[in-house]
Each structure stands twice: as C-alpha cells, then as structure tokens.
C-alpha cells in the first residue's frame, strides 16, 4: 500500500514558488471566506471529538475526587479529595485482583501473540506457494468481535461437551472446568484473546518486514552472517518502529479488554478486570460514580505512559521530515 | 549426497507442514462451531458433540434466526453503523485535509489530540459520557427516551467521535503523500478550500477511504461496550451487544448458540473475504508511517 512507499516531500516548508512573487507571501495565505470554511471543516469534527472523548476523559479525573451516587444535580456532588483512591487501594477487595489480572493480561499478550505473530510473519515473508491462503486463515479471527470470540470459545471450553477436554481425553473421567475454575479461567480466556490478537501482530510485522531494505540482508549475508544473526542483528533493529506500534496496540488492547470476560461470566470469579469494575459502577449493582471514575483514572494513568511513547515516536518522525 | 538433498526441498516441506497445521489450529474454533451448528439437538444429546454426525442440517440457523429475532438486531446495527461510517469518514477527512494541507500553529497539537484520543481505553470515557447523555434532552421524534441516553443517535455520535481519532491519523498521513501542486493548481483556477477538498483531494483518497470504511465497518459492528452502557432498551441493542441476551434465549442448546454466533459473525466474515485487501491495507496504513 501507499503507506509503505517512501514519503512524499515534506509539506510545511515554504519554498519560494513563482506565485509568491505575486502578492501572496505564504502558501497558506487564505481569503477570509476560505478561512471561515477551513475553520468550520476543522472546528466541527474537533468539537465533536473533544466534547465526547476528551471532556469525558477529563470528567473522569474530576469526578474521581468526588463522592456522588448520581442522584440529584451537580450541586449534590461532595468533594472528597483522594478519598476514593485511598479506599480503592486499601479497602476494596476486588481492586488488587483486577489490577493483577490486567497485568497478567498485558504480559501474556506482549509475549505469546507477539512472538507467535513475529515468527509467522518471518515465515511468511518470502515467495511461498499458498502464502496468501495461509495469511488469510491466520488473519481471520481478527474480524470477530471479542464478545463473539468469548461465545465461540465457550463451545471449546465446556467441561463435558467441549472440544478441548474431549481431545485431551479428560471429558469422561475428570473434566477440567476451564472457564469455571478461578485458578485457570484467566489463562483459558487469554488463549482465546491471544488467538484473535496473533493475526493482528503478524499483519503488523509482515508490513514492517516488507519495508525492510533487502540490500541490508544481502550485505549481512556477504559479511558471512547466519540467518539468525541477520535477523537479530540487522532485521529486528530495523523493525523498531513496528515494535513500538505492536507494544502500544497490545497494551491498549490489554487495558480495554472487557467484552470477552463480560460475555463469559460478567467478569467475576477469577476474571475481574479494571474495565469490569468501572462498568459495574455504571450499569452494575452499585452506582458510585466517583468511585468508578477513580478506577478509570487508574486505567488512564497506565495507558497514558504508552500513549505518550507512541505519540513521541510518531511525531518525532514528523518533525524530522 | 548433496545432489539428492537439493532435489527434495525438505526445509520447505517442513515449513508448509508447520503452516498448514498452524492454520488448522487457528481455524479449529470456527470449524468446531460450524460443525456443532449443522447437527441436530437429538444427535448431539445422544452422541455428544465429539462424535461423527448422524446427519447435517441447516435447521439450527433458521431456528436461531427467528427465535432470537435476529433480523431486528441486524437492523439495529445497520441503523447505527451506516450513518456512523459515513459521518466519521466525512468529518475525519475534513480534519485530515486541513491538518495536512495547511500549516497553523495548532496543527500538530490537533493531530496529536485525535491520535491520542483514539488510544484511550473506553472505560476512561464511559462514566462521564453516560452522565452527559443522561443530562441531554432530545425531542421525542429523535429518540423515544427523549434523552441522548438510550438513543441510536447517541450511539452514532460516540462512534463518530471515538473513531475519528484513528481515521484522522490515517487520512492525514495519506494526504501528505499527495503532491501539493494538485491543490495549488485548483486554487489558481479559482477553486475555494472546500472545492479543493471535495473535488481534488478526496477523490484521490479513494483507496485509503475504502480501506478505512472496511475497517471501521468491522469495528463499529463489533462494538460491545458503548451499546451495552448507552442503550438500555433491549429492543434497540445492536447485534453484538445483544449476544448477551441470546444466551438466555437459547438456554442450553449449544447447537443453536453455535448457529447464532456464526450468523452474527457472518457480515464481518463476508466483508473480510470480499474486501480482504482493503481490510489489511487499512490496518497497515494505520501502523506504518506514510
């Protein structure tokens, strides 16, 4: 695709073009009407985005310092400082397990699908008969929603009727309750989530590998490097931008994880996640808005570090261009 | 020795064997669901699921279709997805055009805001958003709840707002690769900003727009959380979020669950098979800098 081709000439530089002699000094000098049109074209979408994404995100931060059960207007909001955070960290029994599950989730996604995806991408990054068919099969799970993935994998994980216990031969004698046992259900769900995530990672690495200059590999081969050395010393370092994208995509995916556990058991009994705790405070049994917002802020803080890393990576290139 | 070895490419055969096995394992959950969905309840009740089918039938699909009222939920999804898709592409392309073709002081800030916005976990937004929707009245011809909450319009709006982050990022990268002279030429001919955008730049972005449309269709179709929180009437739920209720409807009949799941997956599968190039292209566009 075009994105993989070399970038066009940078746009911002104001080189003296012939037109600039005729009155217009800068290429961006606009007639008043054009200014208005452009203002609307930029302003309306930005307003929608800001009002529905950033204002609520900041709202979460503000409400996290409050105690409000949602009844009555804003005047009834009581400000409690860091009270919610203190309570969550010290007294809320579901918080630490949820945080731990989120971290396991992150770690698992960062290791298993990433390694598998990279391996498959390297294997498929060559002239190979049926290569397209392999790719399609491996991409396929990516188009399914995580909610649906949860549904489909329940058919695999059922104790007596599921595919897994039958293949393992434990269905009749001693069926494992993959999704019901709180010691293992998180990992069972992670396999399902990783199943869907691997294709995406493979796709990102395949695109990255295609953009690697073959001359680099040839030069390494001429210098007598083995295939391993070439990959780890030459190809992998060149893939650094892709690695950052993979890291960020995976972390965000991990923090957003919600649908799959909600479909399976509403995120209880070993499947608690921060996202579930937040949602429980809106549509669940309790409606503690300040409390739920404080939980959301914990999510925000974790994700912010990665989002900034990503922005830095992407827009530093921009500056350089 | 060496002669014979090169005549049979063992490494290549091993590679193919490995890849075929991996693909089979990857497809296994779907094939298993498909197999279960084609069998009768009596068959699986008697022989279990891990057995050779006595007969295959499409009955489960028609039962799931009517019993779970699937057409209604497909329609709900359609009502939300199509306007959201059109609006998000329109609004995002306008921002991308402005940001990539003109230089302002706040250019980069705006682009960063959109890019970062698309990476926020939804849960960071959802609590205040729910409150905001609860406080926003709508005329009853727009929403029978008379609020933005529990209205399809509200769902469309959040999809547009949230997804525009990704689309602005991708489209602005794409537009930067279009030579600047093209817009300039139109301007010299007297075309205003909007005409340059609509008649010159946008048509050139067709490949990127097609890729994004494919991707965004899948994402909006697959949304679970927004509808779960912002839609309260079961009858208005889009199909992905309505899955929750399907489980209750089908009770313990796994064949029906399998058939229902596959029917829900069908639109995205069709899009994937028909437009795979666009789908893949959209994701690589988003990840690799142009």
Automatic annotation (TrEMBL), chain A:
User: What family does this belong to?
Assistant: Belongs to the binding-protein-dependent transport system permease family.
Q: Which CDD domains match?
A: TM_PBP2 (cd06261)
- Name its cellular compartments: Cell membrane
Protein's UniProt keywords contain Transport: yes
- GO cellular component terms listed in the entry, alphabetical order: plasma membrane
Q: Does the keyword Transferase apply?
A: no
According to its UniProt entry, one GO biological process term is: transmembrane transport
List each copy of the ABC transmembrane type-1 domain by range.
99-312
Entry protein name: Carbohydrate ABC transporter membrane protein 1 (CUT1 family)
Q: Which keywords does the record carry?
A: Cell membrane, Membrane, Transmembrane, Transmembrane helix, Transport
Q: Organism, per UniProt?
A: Saccharothrix carnea
UniProtKB/TrEMBL annotation, chain B:
Stretches assigned to the ABC transmembrane type-1 domain = 74-275
Q: Which GO terms describe its biological process?
A: transmembrane transport
Q: Which InterPro entries match?
A: MetI-like, MetI-like_sf
What top-level branch of life does the organism fall under? Bacteria
Query: What family does the Swiss-Prot or TrEMBL record give for this protein?
Result: Belongs to the binding-protein-dependent transport system permease family.
PANTHER family according to UniProt: ABC TRANSPORTER PERMEASE PROTEIN MG189-RELATED-RELATED, SN-GLYCEROL-3-PHOSPHATE TRANSPORT SYSTEM PERMEASE PROTEIN UGPE
- Name assigned to this protein: Carbohydrate ABC transporter membrane protein 2 (CUT1 family)
